């Protein structure tokens, strides 16, 4: 009897071992297929396959527009109310009357706010791959206002939206009246709007992760699988970035509102993970967005704004120019264009009531070209991303058809 039992156990063990090997080989084949699909998608870029990339981009855009139209139809009550409000505003905008003064004022403020909110969204959308509009737009804007305040001795130049040039008032006061707080109050609106835009840009990852968790994770989605593996395996990881991301995830998950607020209130390149983490763990929307909005639009923006203002204060700028000149060999070569640029800015600011004569400066020319290159790269990255998204749809459709056969 014992011998028969032993003989029965041996086939069972062999069968179990065989099943495990088959399971491992199937898992490897799935991973190889996913890796192959990923490499195929990443090859869809404009400089390698321009025709098919543009074709997929157009098709993905049409799909997104169709999905947006369907969502708007589901919320047609809210859409109808917004259309009624827009109609009322249009009538008030187009009709003559004493209210036009207030309408024009509100229009300028609204467009100014929309401009900076849009730049903030462009900065944070795409999980860190967006256009870095603080360095390209908001930072230089705060710097120009700071230089103008010290040079004019006043902050009484026109309120936002500014004209093409900041013009000093003719009766400028003494520069001693200028302080950090007065300059901060001058740029508070645009800085806070930009910060609010960065908070809005963190919402798409939150909603995608939340929808995936509520509907059940797709086992064929390698992006979701990578996120799950990172959460499980990062504890044993040795590299700093992975462990830092895990620290952000733990803080957001355990501390809640104040953890999100702490992560959003400092310049934190790892905050991209916070939206995915909050959506994955079903953190309430207003807990996530409220903490993100307060942290980015109020606390973080005041820190960044204060840093730029201090950096471009008059005495610090003069010290910086002198330090540039003290660098051996290349110092005098760099000091001259910087001094010319600052002198041109001073002359332009003193040209009250009109435009200063245009003077060519290679630093301004280089900055314009850098901005142009960054914008072009951002547009190209959007086209590539949309094309790769459509390619992923085709791959998922192909795999589902193979399973049904």
From TrEMBL:
Residues 1-32 are annotated as: Disordered. The chain crosses the membrane at residues 77-94, 114-138, 251-267, 273-294, 306-327, 362-383. GO terms for biological process: autophagosome assembly; Golgi organization; lipoprotein transport. This is Vacuole membrane protein 1. One of its GO terms (cellular component) is endomembrane system. Keywords: Membrane, Transmembrane, Transmembrane helix.
């Amino acid at each position: 009897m014992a011998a028969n039992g032993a003989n029965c156990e041996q086939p069972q063990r062999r069968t179990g071992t065989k099943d495990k090997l088959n399971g491992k080989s199937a898992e490897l084949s799935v991973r190889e297929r996913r890796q192959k699909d990923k490499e195929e998608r990443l090859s869809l870029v404009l400089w390698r396959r321009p025709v098919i990339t543009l074709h997929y981009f157009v098709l993905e855009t049409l799909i997104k527009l169709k999905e947006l139209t369907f969502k708007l139809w589901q919320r047609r009550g809210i859409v109808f109310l917004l259309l009624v409000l827009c109609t009322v505003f249009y009538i008030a905008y187009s009709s003559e009357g004493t209210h036009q003064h207030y309408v024009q004022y509100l229009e300028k403020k609204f467009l100014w706010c929309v401009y900076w909110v849009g730049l903030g969204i462009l900065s944070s959308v795409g999980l860190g791959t967006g256009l870095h509009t603080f360095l390209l737009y908001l930072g230089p804007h705060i710097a120009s206002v700071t230089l103008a305040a010290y040079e004019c001795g006043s902050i009484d130049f026109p309120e936002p939206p500014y004209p093409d040039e900041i013009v000093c008032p003719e009766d400028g006061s003494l520069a001693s009246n200028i302080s950090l707080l007065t300059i901060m109050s001058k740029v508070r609106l645009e800085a806070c709007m930009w910060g609010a835009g960065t908070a809005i840009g963190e919402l798409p990852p939150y909603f995608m992760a939340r929808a995936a968790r509520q509907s059940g994770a797709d086992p064929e989605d390698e992006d979701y699988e990578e996120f799950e593996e990172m959460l499980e395996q990062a504890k044993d990881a040795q590299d700093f970035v992975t462990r830092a991301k895990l620290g952000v995830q733990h803080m957001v998950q355990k501390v809640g509102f104040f953890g999100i607020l702490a992560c959003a209130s400092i310049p934190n390149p790892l905050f991209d993970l916070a939206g995915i983490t909050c959506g994955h763990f079903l953190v309430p929307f207003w807990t996530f967005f409220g903490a993100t909005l307060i942290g980015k639009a109020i606390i973080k923006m005041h820190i960044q704004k204060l840093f730029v203002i201090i950096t471009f204060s008059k005495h610090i700028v003069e010290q910086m120019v002198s330090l540039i000149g003290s660098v051996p060999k290349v110092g005098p070569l760099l000091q001259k264009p910087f001094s010319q640029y600052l002198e041109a800015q001073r002359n332009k600011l003193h040209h009250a009531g009109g435009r200063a004569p245009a003077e060519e400066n290679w630093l301004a020319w280089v900055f314009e070209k850098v901005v142009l290159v960054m914008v072009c790269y951002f547009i190209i990255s959007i086209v590539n991303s949309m094309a790769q998204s459509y390619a992923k749809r085709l791959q998922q459709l192909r795999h589902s058809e193979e399973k049904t056969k």
